[in-house]
Amino acid sequence: ATAVSMQLSHVASTLRLTNGGLARLFRASPSSVRRWRHGDASPTTERIHRLYELTVVSDLLSQVMEPDAGA
To answer: Are 11 and 51 a contacting pair, CB within 8 Å?
Structure first.
């Protein structure tokens, strides 16, 4: 796994997002997000910066969000 794919999985898990949800945040297609998560492609520098921002936000939210009862 690449650093980008691990961060995408972390953000998706913390914010409870599907590839489609991530795609909306990155203004990309779900298939692009899937390729990034599998390490088959890399996002642009701009989208890597967006990933960093989302990582910070997801980490802050994880400190105040209640865990899922089913998790």
So the answer is: yes
